[in-house]
Specification:
This protein is α/β, with parallel strands linked by helices and 492 residues long. Helices cover 32% and strands 11% of the residues. The protein folds into 4 domains: 3-75, Ubiquitin-like (UB roll) (Roll); 101-177 and 333-372, no CATH class; 198-320, FAD/NAD(P)-binding domain (3-Layer(bba) Sandwich); 385-484, Alpha-Beta Plaits (2-Layer Sandwich). The chain has helices spanning 19-25, 77-92, 101-105, 112-120, 124-135, 138-144, 148-151, 164-167, 174-177, 206-217, 243-255, 268-274, 302-320, 340-346, 362-365, 385-392, 429-436, 462-465, 470-476; strands at residues 3-6, 9-12, 49-52, 57-60, 71-73, 198-202, 221-226, 259-262, 277-280, 294-295, 417-419, 444-446, 453-455, 482-484. It starts with a strand and ends in an 8-residue tail after the last strand. Bound molecules: iron/sulfur cluster (3 copies) and FE2/S2 (inorganic) cluster.
Length: 492
């Protein structure tokens, strides 16, 4: 039984074991993309490289045999830099958007495609839940937001942008689901780590309401203070916003657990003595600095104020948990502008042809407008290992720009499993799995060199190649290349 050291930790393994097996024994995580337990190593991605200290060589941990006396380093700068280069190369030919353009542009990052999918399926409560979760005051914003998201909507390349702003008007549905649990979705307010702690938000404008709502969702007991007798801040001065819409949103937030202390002048000392954390979201405090306080700048664009409120709440939450102030941004692969043929390809994701008439609320709307969405986001934004590791190793998609970007293609869009060749990193796992599962046709690599790609042999349909191994292929595929059409992982 060879004994070797991984990052100084001693590991004794069976004969024939790999360096990766040894690392697992001592709980050292090595990133892999093309490795699957029970399959011969493919050694195609090379992300699992580690340093053999004696020889100074970088070796692939998934295939290198563990030899007695070996000294392995999995963390040195050289290993990190090699992994980053590998990811940058993979990303240079990766044709995929982790997030949809509309979500990126929305300052509050509403998960628009997900909301639209729920609407399209007639799940009004789930759609309203998503709008509420991400925007705090979605109905107010549906009246006054300039809708920058719609300006970035790809559907405009086909006919007209989706009327996203109208679709997050939740007043018709919001009362139906209240604060209850929606099947398949996590509860609106979860007893999380914030539980037991009390936080205060000074100011009840859009930034304050949004901060309070985010803190409430994170499990804090939250009180909003304002000298005004009604919550809403500058929203109360808005000429085109019906005040009953604002009242309903505030009422709903109160019903969800946010306390409001309105009217009498408040003493800041009283607040700082009684609460574990404070967010200042009121213009008159913005010039003053308080140690350990967090600031959510109110903004004349309410959606920006909402975004500021969420950011301040997240920062306070991290502070109270003793985490570093800045959370790492999620990695986001970007395709950029689509060619005309590619927009047509994405239209396969849309079940509706043309624009429909909008009615007053999404409850009445029936999802016909939502059905026009091209669903530009990725189907595996949470489980994609390429995204996870790109984030972890600080990869940069622009480091090695490709001469010509690959094409967006959707294969099998009418079937249960969708294959997007542009997202395939040619790891070979799906090919091995279909072989192991004795699929009659299965999958194979076709073409040569740069044009190599995964396909069902003889040009047959995806469903004929994946009769038994579909789920296994989707689960093993390290990216969003293979995904269930109706999969859709839920971002929280
Ligand atoms: S496959 Fe992964 S990296 Fe590519 S778009 Fe999807 S989530 Fe992003
Ligand atoms: S088509 Fe849908 S997912 Fe794509 S940008 Fe427009 S609203 Fe967003
Ligand atoms: S489609 Fe197959 S070859 Fe391509 S990344 Fe997914 S599992 Fe690997
Ligand atoms: S080469 Fe080892 S996991 Fe890909």
């Amino acid at each position: 039984m060879p004994e070797l050291r991984i990052n100084g930790l001693s590991a004794r393994v069976d004969d024939g074991a790999t360096v990766l097996d040894a690392a697992e024994l001592v709980f050292v995580e090595i990133p892999t993309l093309c490795h699957l337990k029970g399959c011969e190593p493919e050694t195609s991605c090379m992300l699992c490289v580690v340093k053999d200290v004696a020889t100074g060589q970088l070796i692939p941990a998934c295939s290198a045999k563990a030899i007695g006396g070996m000294e392995i380093d999995t963390e040195c700068d050289e290993v990190q830099a090699a992994r980053r280069d590998i990811l940058n190369l993979l990303l240079s030919e990766h044709v995929g958007d982790c997030e949809a353009p509309c979500t990126r542009i929305c300052p509050a990052h509403l998960d628009i495609p997900r909301m639209l999918r729920e609407l399209e399926r007639g799940h009004m409560d789930s759609a309203a839940w998503i709008a509420k979760r991400d925007l705090a005051i979605p109905s107010v914003l549906s009246h006054i937001c300039p809708a920058p998201c719609e300006k970035g909507c790809r559907r405009a390349q086909v006919d007209q942008a989706i009327t996203i702003r109208e679709l997050h008007r939740t007043e018709g549905s919001v009362r139906e689901f209240g604060n209850s649990r929606i099947p398949g979705l996590t509860p609106m307010v979860t007893p999380m780590e914030g539980a037991g702690k009390k936080v205060a938000v000074i100011g009840s404008g859009p930034a304050g309401l949004s901060s309070a709502w985010k803190l409430c969702q994170l499990g804090y007991a939250c009180t909003v203070f304002d000298e005004a007798t009604q919550a809403g801040g500058t929203l109360r001065d808005h000429k085109t916003l019906p005040m009953d819409v604002l009242d309903t949103e505030v009422e709903w937030l109160a019903g969800a657990g946010i306390e409001f202390e309105l009217g009498p002048a408040i003493s800041l000392h009283m607040v700082s003595d009684k609460f574990d954390g404070v967010v200042f979201a009121e213009t008159e405090f913005s010039g003053t600095h308080f140690a350990d306080a967090f600031y959510a700048e109110e903004h004349k664009l309410a959606v920006k104020a909402v975004a500021n409120g969420k950011a301040a709440a997240t920062a306070l939450d991290r502070f109270l948990k003793g985490e570093p102030p800045d959370a790492a941004e999620r990695f986001d692969s970007k395709i950029g502008k689509l060619r005309e043929s590619e927009v047509r390809e994405l239209c396969k994701n849309s079940s509706a042809g043309s624009r429909q008439v909008i009615t007053q609320s999404i409850s009445n709307f029936g999802g016909t407008e939502a059905a026009r969405c091209l669903h530009c986001d990725c189907r595996k934004p949470l489980s994609c290992k390429l995204r996870k590791y790109s984030e972890q190793f600080g990869a940069d998609q622009q480091e090695f720009p490709a001469d010509e970007r690959g094409h967006v293609r959707l294969i099998g869009h009418n079937e249960a499993v969708v294959f997007e060749p542009g997202k395939c990193i040619k790891c070979g796992l799906c090919v091995k799995i279909t072989k192991r599962a004795d699929e009659e046709l299965g999958l194979a690599f076709t073409g040569r060199g740069f044009n190599t790609q995964v396909a069902v042999p003889f040009g047959e349909n995806l469903q004929d190649g994946l009769k038994q191994a579909a789920r296994e292929c989707v689960d093993a595929c390290p990216t969003g290349a293979f995904a269930f059409k109706e999969g859709g992982e839920i971002k929280n």
